[in-house]
Amino acid sequence: MRFVIVTGMSGAGKTTALKMLEDMGYFCVDNLPIPLLPGFASMLDAPETEMKKAALGLDVRGGQDFSGLESNLKELDEKGVKYEILFLDASDDVLVKRYKETRRQHPLSGSGRVDTGIAKEREKIAFLKMRATYILDTSKMLTRELRLELEKIFVDGQSFCNLFITVMSFGFKYGIPQDADLVFDVRFLPNPYYIENLREKTGNDPEVQDYVMENDKGRIFLEKLRDLMEFLIPNYILEGKNQLVIAIGCTGGKHRSVTLANALYKILESEESYGVRIEHRDIGKDSITKKK
C-alpha cells in the first residue's frame, strides 16, 4: 500500500497534483477533515483493503485547524503506518499573482490582503514542510513539468531530490532576473549580432551555436561552468535548497546567452537526482522592439 498526503501552500497546485495522481491510478480524497485522518489511514492499512495506492489532500480551506494534525501524524508513526508527504510550494509573489488571476480570496486572508493570508498559512503549515518527503516548488513549473516530476516519483519510482533547477538565458538590457540565484555574464564572447547572416537567428540555431562555441573562450567557459555546477549542486542539495535559478546573460538575450544556457541544460538534464528546465526569457524581444 502506498499512502501519500498531498499538502502545501494554497495556490501552489495541490488540486492539480491530486488530479494527476488520480490519472496515475491513485484513489484520491481531497480536503478530508483532519480528525478523520487516523481512521482513513487505518482503513487503508487494513489487510483486506483493495486499494493499493491512495492520496489524501490536506490544506487550510474551510478553516481547517492544523493544530491536531501533528499529533495525528505522530500517532500514525507509532502505529507503524507508512505514509509519504508531498509538499507543494511556490514563492509569495507567484501565489499572489495566481490569486489575482483567478480573482479568488485566500482562505486565511478574510477581508484583508492576499499576502497576509499567505503569511498566516506559511506559519500554520511550516511543520508539514519540515516533515515532507518531497518538496516541489511550482513557481516556474509548467503543468506538464509537474506531471513529469510526479510520474518520476510515484510511477517510475526514481530516486528524488527536492532541488529543481531553472537554467535561464536573458538580456542585460532588459534587466537581471529578480529571482536569479546565480548570474553569469557571457558578453565577453564574440557577438553573432555583428554577423549579417546570423543577426536574425538565435542561440537555438546550429549556425549561431557553432559560431559562439568555435572559439576557446566559449568552450573553456562551459567547462569551468560544468565544474562549478558539479561542486555547487550537491552542496545546495545538502543545504536543503529546493529551487535554483541559474541565469546566463548577454546583451540582448538572443544569441550568446541562449547558446550557453542550452549547453548547460544538456549537461544538467542527464542527472536524475534533481529536476531541470530551460527558459529563454528575452529571446524574442529584439524583434518585438524593432517592430514597434
Keywords:
18% strand, four-stranded parallel β-sheet, alpha/beta, 9 strands, 2 domains, single chain, Rossmann fold
What can you see in these coordinates?
- This protein has 292 residues and is of the alpha/beta class.
- It has ten helices and nine strands.
- The strands form two sheets. It has a five-stranded parallel β-sheet with strand order 2-3-1-4-5, sandwiched between helices. Strands 7-8-6-9 form a four-stranded parallel β-sheet, covered by helices on one side.
- Helix 2 links the parallel strand 2 and strand 3.
- The longest helix is centred in the C-terminal third of the chain and has 24 residues.
- The mean pLDDT is 88.
